Amino acid sequence: MRLSDRSRRVVIVGAGLGGTATAVRLLQFAREPVQVVLIERHPGYRSAGVAYHRAGNHWQHVFNIQAGRMSMFREDVDDFVSWANSEADRTGWSAEWRGFTFTESGPAPRRIYADYLADRLAQAAREAADGVRLLEADGEVVDLAVGDGGAHVVVDRFSLPHDDAEPGRAILRADHVVIATGLEERELPFAAEVMNHPAFVRHPYSEAGIERILGTRPDATVVIIGTLLSAYDSASLLLRCGHRGRIAMISRSGRMLRTYPPDHRHHVLDLPAPRLHSESYEGRPDLLRRVTAEWERACAIVAREHPDVAPVVVAERVSKSWEPHLPGVLARIPAADLRVLLDQYGTLLATLRVGAVAYTTEIVDAAIDDGGPITLVTGKVDRIAGTEAGTLMVSVAAAPAPQTVEADLVISNFGREPDYGRAGSVLWAALLRKEIAVRHRRTGRGVEVDESGALLGPSGVASGPISVIGGPREGDEIVRNGRIGAFTFNLAAIKNHSVGVAATVLRRLESCYDEHAGDLTEDPGARAAFARSVMLEVRRMTARRGRDRAALVARLEVSLAGIRDATSGSEFPRADRALRSAVNTAATTKLNDLSVTPRELRRLLGLDEPLEAPG
Q: What percent of the chain has pLDDT over 70?
């Protein structure tokens, strides 16, 4: 397929998890011709990103959460497990996984996720409506220009599949742009002297990083900077490959991962709202006292009223139940204090919810206990310097006294950069310089977006037809939805972002919608017909097969006629485009309901029940 300006075009910047999920939803939702151009600067990251690409994930790197929570479709929680057991091509899989039966609560290797996402993207492209096309391209988007109702996308090293032309600079016209660039990398001042040292692994999730870790002598001394997810991955990989030398895991918090129970399922408890408000904000110490007291009260309620909840997941249940209440609490905190609190406690709050499956944690925890090879060091890494012997000296500001560890290998975690003013991205630097984007004012994390993910400029209005997925929305997720840390850009957040952005983009572009639709729920005559139409639209948006969507469109149009009839004598009769837009907006809201788990959502949407016969 080639580029064509004859149909509308949506350009997606980044083909990792966020970009791929959004492309799938655009292909599913679109009713009119549109070209979806999915651009990736690292071909090996396509349908994977850093987290899941094959070359950077050993077969013993597994998801930290259960396989049953890895579906890319929030409304179809079993999709990934079903794919892994019934559809995946296991040619080339390691012996450990080749005959493995995946379960909802069990582990799965991360490297197969790229195949899953690629399969679902290909399926969505095959089943798309007439004129809806996917084009995958390589290149790095370095700038955007906004004007005339669209945007021009500047791409370096642009190339198309099966094209003999040399890669070069291209400028693509786009009716809408979706930025899904993933996480930005933080500079590591303490490692400035050793960034290119052969004993320093800056990117453990890379082909070179994996090769260096696997090539380490079994008796070598290894330092791992971090004690959470990526640190456990590196430590467990070393141990499973027979490493017997000393491993020092270093972090400022010293917090370790919790192990999920074998039968763990995600669940949302209805707990009393935390009493964190006072008549006026009285400073950080007062707020921290209130949080501590309310946390202890909530944990006691869970223990007393929900005895079936395993103690190890009580913190997860409490944290999730607090999410809807946090935006109101955070709104009362001055921005300067909020930034300090996030810097000091954001990681701690996030880790209260995060855990990992036993496949990863048990081997590491066993190596810590009873004088095993792993030691924990709580402190801040001040400096890493090379020695004449080729080793690295790691200086740690630790209590009660500083420590120095000499290591044959030092593995650093990702170290993401939340402040986009300091990010190394050429694209984000250009967007900030031109004030197409602004840093998130309240938190200093990510950039300003509206409730639908539209990128905002300095005046607080959309700077153009540009939407954002994933990491750049961190600050907005914190203040709008009460999500903290990795929960602002993890798989669950991206599922919701992709649905919301795809639906919003198409309501703007497609002629069957009026972007400015009214609220029909207040019209008694239209209420029942409106509810039926919304559920039909939910079915259409979640249907995988093109013929099913076509049949649902026909039924939806009949249902919309019922709304028109019900409102024909009212003061404000509804136009077709406004009706479709209102119904689509309501259906999108239902699909992105954060108050329930994905399995509960599917039940509430009635997706496993037969449709009522048209009446």
A: 95
Is residue 446 left, alpha or beta, with left meaning phi > 0 and alpha meaning psi from -120 to 50?
A: left
Helices (H) and strands (E) in the chain, counts: 19, 17
With H, G, I as helix, E, B as strand and everything else as coil, classify residue 122.
helix
Residue 26: which of 563, 498, 510, 531 has the closest Cα? Answer: 498
Give 579's contacts (C-beta < 8 A, 6+ positions apart). 517, 520, 533, 560, 563, 564
| 576 closest CA partner among 511, 502, 521 | 511
Contact by Cβ (8 Å): 361, 257: yes
Is the peptide bond preceding residue 109 cis, with omega within 30 degrees of 0?
no
Q: Rounded to whole angstroms, how far apart are CA atoms 485 and 347?
A: 6
Residue range 579-601: average pLDDT? Answer: 93
Q: What is the DSSP string of 41-56?
A: SSGGGTTTHHHH-GGG
Structure tokens at 78: 């079993």
pLDDT at 207: 94
pLDDT digits (tens, 9 = 90+) for 178-195: 999 999 999 999 999 999
CA distance 24 to 10: 12
Instruction: Please name the residues in contact with 189: beta carbons below 8 A apart, sequence gap of 6 or more.
Output: none
pLDDT at 567 over 90: no
Asked if 307 and 325 count as a contact pair (C-beta separation under 8 A), the reply is no
Structure tokens at 414: 């990702």
- For residues 414 and 402, what is the distance between their CA atoms, to the nearest angstrom? 24
Q: Is residue 569 pLDDT above 80, yes or no?
A: no
Task: Answer whether 371's CB lies under 8 Å from 475's CB.
Answer: no
CA pair distance 210, 212, nearest whole angstrom: 5
Neighbours of 498 (CB within 10 A): 29
Helix (H, G, I), strand (E, B) or coil at 262: coil
For residue 161, the tally of other CB atoms under 10 A from its CB is 9
The C-alpha atoms of residue 260 and residue 313 are separated, in whole angstroms, by 7
Q: What DSSP string runs through 458-495? A: TTSSEEEEEEE-SGGGHHHHHHHH---GGGGTSHHHHH
Write down the pLDDT at residue 615: 59
**In this predicted structure, what is the pLDDT of residue 432?**
97
Query: pLDDT, tens digit, for every residue of 68-101?
Result: 999 999 999 999 999 999 999 999 999 999 999 9
CB proximity list for 434: less than 8 A, separation 6 or greater? none
d(CA 409, CA 243): 13
Give the pLDDT confidence score for residue 516 in this predicted structure. Answer: 63
342: nearest Cα among 356, 324, 326, 354: 326
Pairing of strands 409-412, 222-225: parallel
Length of the chain, please? 615
DSSP string for 533-551: HHHHHHHHHH--SHHHHHH
Tokens of 62: 């597994």
**What is the predicted pLDDT for the residue at 517?**
57
Distance CA 49, CA 16 (A): 4
Please enumerate in sequence order all residues whose Cβ is within 8 A of that of 389, keeping only pairs 6 or more positions apart, or say none: none
* Count of CB atoms situated within 10 Å of the CB of 207: 14
Q: Are 387 and 393 in contact (CB under 8 A)?
A: yes
pLDDT tens digits, residue range 96-122?
Answer: 999 999 999 999 999 999 999 999 999
Residue 222 pLDDT > 60: yes
Terminal Cα distance for the chain, rounded: 43
Region 308-332 average pLDDT:
92
